[in-house]
Predict the 3D structure of the following.
Amino acid sequence: MKTLLALMLFVCSPVMFAADKMLGPQASELFVDLTDSKVLYAKHASLALIPASVTKLFVAASTLQQWGAYHTFTTKIYSRGQWQDGILIGDLVFYGAGDPEFTNEKMWQLVNNLQQIGLKKIKGNIIVNASYFGKVIVSAADRVAAKSQTKVSYDALLSSAGTNFGTIAVVISAGKKVGDLAALKISPYALQNVYLIGKVNTVSGQASALQVMRSSQEKKEILTVSGTIGIKCAPITLYRSVGDPNLATGALLKAFLEQAGIVTEGNIHVELTPVWKTDTLLTQLEGTPLIKSLQDLLRYSNNYVADTLTLDLWKAYQPSPFPSVTLSNAAQILFSTSKANFTEKNTDRVPIFKSGSGLTVSNRISASNLISLLKEVYNNKRDFPIFYGSLVIPGQQTCWHNIPTAEHPWMRQTSLKTGHSTVPNSVDAMAGYFRMNNGHLGAFAVLFNCPPTTEAEQSQCFKALVKHLDQVFQMRCHLL
């Protein structure tokens, strides 16, 4: 409750804390009427704070501006060797070109294409060519730790040849009776470098308590599963990020080939140099249009999609091959692809991008920066409908973040993106558009940074933010 009280006092306080000294609660807020170009409410609008996932708004706007909603990324498979009577006497090369939505379904389509052209056996190796981005160097603490172990999926590592959002799926199915061990499997197929250990007991009822830890050592992904699953539960699928996304892609391709009856004799290798000029294209597949990625980006806040698209943008401006790229350097492209005015002399008005996902805690964005972006997209007649339609309308759900939306009418009149994180500070942020009762369209951005809190206090902080928005929308924005 002390945290809640501090936040409420902060919301009403005229004091502005220094952005780099996270000594107490901080806020940056701006609400504008876009139709009349009028400021409705502002508080420390130029104060740059940790934005968490609202950073993804910049990625969405930049990709739309760069390519349009129906752009696709093409994945290719080459042969490196001689082809004789359905037998490849040489290597099969998988070339990924940064498709953020490359999943099992697309792998199946590529392998099916190989079947159709008569491939029966590969005498060489399976090579995963990730040269399109080169080696991707990350700095977010979560992703650095994920190279060796993880308990989550949101910290997925990045590659231009990544698959399934950089994750492995573990399916846990209850035994036939209480006391039996649950069945554990990798979906869709067993992978040669992935090992499942541990056990899960079947218990009565529907309640389950499951834990999955992934550790990586000597090119092996070891998934340790424990806990209980209710006998009345349907199979539960849990996802964990992989320690090496390129090897995971190679193992996935090998599994699909074998399921299709295509024999593979060699090993899996990763290549970061360009495909050879003598490689022969066997098949290719256009990915899902960008509009699908925008939904995963803004509705489901997928970090892997956000940062892969950031790297795609960087690659569009840097077509020459590079042996490596740091995500923080690639994220600077978000300045180049946006027309929003970030050139003010006052440096606290300039955002800091170290990732497109917001997973890096060194990102800094102000409410003013966000409103500049939202104005820019609003004035873009081609992209605005797609961008606007990809945002979340809280009032479309009965409950949103465990809050009944019927009790907060503004939730029916807003389309927004949220951001939330707990390390190193508690962050709650929202930005988007709202429809006023007079028919005008408005834009708003709020960023709250608080000292670290307990899980229960974090929930109370978010509720306090919602209460604050109730007041601002009613008193300043004429929504009610």
